[in-house]
Design goal:
single chain; seven-stranded antiparallel sheet; five-stranded antiparallel sheet; 27 strands; 38% helix
Length: 780
């Protein structure tokens, strides 16, 4: 070995003290990119394997980047892209789980256990079927079937993909005065060696597959005969010697990337592997697209956790993240040679089948599970120190510490392992009934917030919905500006830039500016022969107040010239108090430099959503209101209505919470009420005059109830403006009769209309505008 190779094999070039001694490195070390993968078997509601094809609603399994099949047609695989935080990666995976559940028929579930449900005979387990140019994928699975047996391939699990921050690697290289490529290899090779060396700790912490259904039969690598799995007292059958592993011992040279790859290629030449992807080691190195350098590590030890709604708790992933950093910073006791690899294998198997209570002999060394207890506690102590030294958030710190404490309690014999508790529950209820109940519970829990894109909940709901549908279709997205909800969508060379879901390349900037200006919008619509409210345009408060004598006693709407979401709008139906008019004028000027005072148009207000001049949804918006019960005051009724999970703040839920502020108090006062008034049973009390959803209004779908003649008016308006995506607000006195000159008026056109109010109305159908927009953008 030459000096260059020797340096590249150095495992002690970095430790915690070195990290702490260099300002900035600790903060950079906890950053990185995170990707998650997991497989789930689809099962029937009676616990049998689902024999149906991959759901059509999930698109082509051959080229979908996020949802495909694993070995079996009945085994769905979900894959997140690499993301900058575990919160986002876990949220993305949760959203994929929801998308899959929504695509399944009523009689199918996702099985939340690594060990499969009731399986048919070996030959009847369906291999994933790919057609055309992807046929080789089926042929590859058939070859795996002959080597491993179909039953073993039905054992499912989860993978944790992690890459260090490139900024961290660059700064570390600068501090050490070495090339960044060398530092990258040194870091990842040390991590993989220590992860392989200490992986038994992870099995002890996260193993959740202690038992199986009697229908699972595995193929013996020696006799090639099928044998039943009889273990019902272990920690992780999946991580044990009979679980998912290669049939031959695969000793590997982990010193350098070059030696690692050469060892794999030797195994391929000797017929022990079909290709590098068939390496079923607990930890694998992954290369970039060019195959030239390490891109990330793949930790493959995670069992599905049936106690978690998606089988993959965020707390477990956070613990695993810390363990990866422990592997980077922990000094190595010596080379990870053939003997050490065999001992590491035996330790993994020992903990997998017997926790900390078994024993075995390997390489002439007698291994006892109880002897690993002390090591487990020592690793826990070091991870605690690492947890304290690095800048984790308080929430992360709490979750990780809980995981460390749990394993310490188990290792010390003070608490039963979670797998032991799982075994007890299975013995009481039965393997199939217990896990079926978990699968049903998962579906119920996932249905509660099916409108969210988890991990991206801080973004506007309309954007979340668009990203959810993009993900369903296998369209990639990049967040360009999170606070502005600006994203890039791309698939197969096609890309589109979208802001706040409905600002797209479909509309010219001049048309957006035209709609943003209510004065010019009215001029254009009136010129096209469409009715709009008459009124005045004022550029300062005195000018608006000078018109008091003209509007006194007339119903008017006072609003800013260029705002949305009902901001600064006041409706004065009586308009016989100058002080109220003055207050409305000043409220509008607080939001804009110019305002409009328009005649109030009677009738119901409707939001028409148009794409390419076609009405695709109509919504009636009812002002914020409560219904009296004769017992509770208005304040209590509002608080109760606001408990609806569909209501929130900041356009991140389908409906907004009703406010209890000055605007609501003022409007209640005009009706002779206050917040402490107890309305009679059945009495509807309105807290706002304007009907905007953003101020707590209710959304009711009217798409099929409004006369088609109003569709035609809305289409004429969109064509007059020249806009392809718009939200048009129209007042209509009798929506069921044909339009006439006097029974309607177009009061506004919006250049950035929300789609979530049409997708999740308070009452009525989901109009799926997320789908319609993606279709229009060309992502079919």
């Amino acid at each position: 070995m030459n000096m260059s190779q020797s340096r590249r094999c150095d495992g002690n070039f970095i430790n915690l003290e070195f990290l702490k001694a260099h300002e900035g490195l600790p903060a950079l070390s906890v950053r990185g990119r995170f990707g998650l993968e997991k497989e789930h078997v689809r099962c029937m509601t009676d616990g049998r394997l689902a024999m149906t094809p991959h759901p059509e609603r999930l698109g082509s399994k051959a080229d979908h980047p996020f949802i495909t099949t694993d070995f079996s047609e009945s085994q769905i695989e979900m894959i997140t892209p690499p993301l900058p935080s575990l919160h986002e990666a876990h949220g993305f995976l949760t959203t994929l789980h929801q998308i899959v559940l929504q695509a399944l028929p009523e009689d199918e579930l996702l099985w939340l256990q690594s060990m499969p449900p009731v399986l048919p005979d070996e030959a009847e387990i369906p291999v994933a079927q790919f057609e055309g140019s992807s046929r080789f994928k089926t042929e590859y699975r058939e070859r795996l079937s002959s080597i491993y047996g179909r039953g073993r391939q039905m054992i499912s699990g989860a993978h944790f993909n992690f890459s260090l921050s490139e900024t961290f690697l660059t700064d570390l290289a600068r501090v050490r005065g070495e090339p960044v490529d060398m530092i990258r290899d040194l870091c990842y090779m040390k991590m993989v060696r220590n992860l392989m060396r200490h992986r038994w700790w992870l099995v002890g912490a996260l193993g959740r597959s202690p038992s199986s259904d009697p229908s699972l039969k595995l193929k013996s690598f020696d006799s090639e005969q099928l044998f039943p799995v009889c273990c019902d007292f272990g920690v992780s059958i999946r991580s044990s010697r009979i679980g998912y592993r290669n049939p031959h011992p695969l000793e590997t040279d982990y010193c350098t990337l070059e030696s690692y790859l050469e060892a794999l290629d030797t195994h391929i030449r000797e017929g022990k592997l079909l290709n590098r992807n068939e390496l079923y080691m607990p930890v694998r190195l992954k290369l970039d697209a060019q195959g030239e350098r390490i891109s990330h590590l793949e930790v493959r030890l995670l069992d599905l956790d049936p106690e978690d709604a998606i089988g993959m708790p965020l707390a477990s992933l956070q613990l695993l993240h810390l363990f990866c950093l422990f592997a980077l910073l922990e000094p190595e006791p010596g080379p990870f040679d053939s003997t050490q690899q065999q001992i590491a294998d035996e330790r993994q198997n020992l903990v997998a089948v017997a926790g900390f209570s078994g024993e075995t002999t390997c390489c002439g060394i007698h291994l006892k599970g109880e002897e690993l207890q002390g090591e487990a506690l020592e690793i826990g102590r070091k991870m605690r120190a690492l947890l304290e030294a690095l800048p984790w958030s308080a929430e992360q710190r709490s979750c990780i510490l809980e995981g460390i404490q749990r394993l310490e309690q188990v290792a010390a014999g003070h608490e039963a392992h979670p797998s032991s508790k799982l075994i007890a529950a299975v013995r009481e209820q039965g393997f199939i009934p217990y896990h079926l109940e978990r699968a049903v519970r998962s579906r119920q829990e996932m249905n509660k917030a099916h409108f969210r894109f988890h991990g991206f909940e801080d973004m506007e709901l309309s954007t979340q919905l668009l990203l959810r549908e993009a993900t369903t279709r296998g369209v990639h997205f990049d967040i360009l500006d999170r606070s502005e909800n600006f994203v890039r969508l791309h698939k197969l060379g096609k890309e589109e830039y979208v802001m706040q879901a409905t600002r797209t390349s479909l509309d010219r900037y001049s048309h957006v500016l035209l709609m943003a200006n209510k004065v010019t919008t009215k001029h254009v619509l009136a010129h096209a022969g469409l009715r709009v409210p008459d009124g005045i345009h004022a550029s300062h408060a005195d000018e608006a107040l000078q018109h008091w004598h003209r509007v006194q006693g007339k119903a008017v709407v006072v609003k800013p010239k260029s705002t949305n979401f009902g901001i600064g709008i006041t409706i004065l139906k009586e308009n016989n108090r100058r002080d109220a008019y003055e207050r409305a004028v000043h409220a509008a000027f607080q939001e804009d430099r110019e305002i409009l005072v328009e005649s109030f148009v009677p009738g119901k207000e409707f939001r028409f959503f148009l794409i390419d001049s076609q009405v695709v949804a109509i919504l009636h918006r009812v002002p914020a209101n409560v219904c009296g019960d004769g017992q509770h005051c208005i304040r209590e009724l509002v608080e109760n209505k606001n408990r609806d999970p569909l209501r929130g703040k900041g356009y991140r839920t389908p409906l907004e919470k009703i406010g209890l502020g000055d605007a609501e108090a003022w409007f209640l006062e005009s009706q002779g009420y206050d917040f402490d008034t107890i309305p009679a049973k059945g009495t509807t009390v309105y807290l706002r005059e304007n009907s905007n959803i953003s101020t707590g209004g209710d959304s009711i779908d009217f798409t099929e109830r409004v006369h088609v003649s109003y569709h035609e008016l809305a289409s004429r308006a969109a064509n007059a403006i020249g806009v392809r995506i718009t939200g048009l607000d129209m007042m209509i006195e009798d929506y069921g009769t044909p339009a006439s000159e006097g029974n309607y008026a177009i009061i506004e056109m919006n250049f950035n209309p929300a789609i979530h109010i049409h997708c999740f109305p308070y009452e009525g159908k989901n109009r799926h505008l997320d789908k319609a927009l993606l279709n229009q953008l060309g992502f079919l």
